[in-house]
Write a structure and sequence with these properties.
This protein has about 270 residues and is of the alpha/beta class. The protein has 2 domains: about 60 residues, Arc Repressor Mutant, subunit A (Orthogonal Bundle), CATH 1.10.10.10; about 180 residues, 3-Layer(aba) Sandwich (Rossmann fold), CATH 3.40.50.1360. About 40% of the residues lie in helices and about 25% in strands. The chain is built from 12 helices and 15 strands. The strands form 4 sheets. It has a 7-stranded parallel beta sheet, sandwiched between helices. It has a 3-stranded antiparallel beta sheet with strand order 1-3-2. Strands 10-11-13 form a 3-stranded antiparallel beta sheet, covered by helices on one side. Strand 2 and strand 3 form a beta hairpin. Helix 1 packs across helix 3 and helix 9 runs parallel beside helix 10.
């Protein structure tokens, strides 16, 4: 297991359990205590964990205002993202025009799209990793939105990207999220990404929210939209039952995928109603 993957899994364990001892991490990953201390120091310097005596705990800042590096996000809830990605890709039909949001879940959608062998599909995206994934497929036309580059996250943003997107129309928009709650709706850590998401919602016939269960039950700083803008939600089986009831009341179509994972009560998915 490479370092960045191990650190992502450590971060995921700490987030799910709140606190974990260094000795347990060393046993789990079959590495030395010194290696674990270096991993935790790296995560602490990013503001993602707090180092305590004999172990580490999650920081409240992580949930709302600090975004892990892309390479770390790839491994966070990776299996859930993979299964959600395939379910989302299966909704796409030949001759569709779709918008794929930035982020690692949408990168998994792109990966699955290639396996479905479309004759003709148009994908609009601001995500360089999505474009790179789709580039070899001759059946998929890719429109990459130009703009300012978020270097550590491989996506574009800003007025040039927004102006380009305003002149495009799509059948489906696959919305990636940082957080969502019943009370406040869908929120995003980075303000600069919000306008592209809002334009995509406005210019698409159908808005499909894709996110694993860890994204629900919390808020970040910047509001993207309310639930009235969402047509479909694709998530995994660990989502709190209150969300399933709420989406049903909102007439939001919900697809819950089965993901091999720890018991849901260990993941501490928040029920906020």
């Amino acid at each position: 297991m490479i370092k960045v993957e191990r650190q992502a899994k450590i971060l995921q364990m700490i987030r799910e359990r709140g606190f974990i001892e260094n000795d347990e991490l060393a046993r789990t990953f079959k590495v030395t205590a010194a290696t674990i201390r270096r991993d935790l120091k790296s995560l602490s310097e990013q503001g993602l964990v707090r180092i305590d005596h004999g172990g580490s705990s999650a920081t409240s800042l992580f949930d709302g205002f600090i975004e892990p590096q892309y390479e770390t996000k790839v491994y966070l809830h990776h299996e859930a993202k993979r299964v959600i990605g395939f379910a989302a890709a299966s909704m796409v039909k030949d001759d569709d025009v779709i918008i794929l949001d930035s982020g690692t879940t949408n990168a998994q959608i792109a990966h699955s799209l290639r396996s479905l062998h479309y004759r003709h599909l148009t994908v609009i995206t601001c995500d360089l990793m999505v474009a790179k994934e789709l580039c070899p497929d001759p059946g998929i036309d890719v429109i990459l939105l130009g703009g300012r580059l978020r270097r550590s996250f491989y996506s574009t943003y800003g007025p040039y990207a927004e102006a380009m997107l305003k002149n495009l129309r799509a059948n489906k928009f696959f919305l990636g999220i940082d957080a969502a709650s019943i009370e406040f709706g869908i929120t995003n850590i980075v303000l600069e990404e919000v306008p592209l998401k809002q334009i995509s919602i406005q210019n698409s016939d159908q808005v499909i929210l894709v996110g694993d269960a860890s994204k629900f039950g919390k808020d970040t700083l910047h509001r993207v939209c309310g639930w009235e803008s969402i047509d479909v939600v694709i998530t995994d089986q660990c989502v709190a039952p209150a969300y399933l009831d709420f989406w049903q009341k909102m007439n939001i179509v919900t697809q819950v995928v089965e993901v091999p994972s720890p018991p849901c009560d260990e993941r501490k998915i928040v029920d906020d109603v």
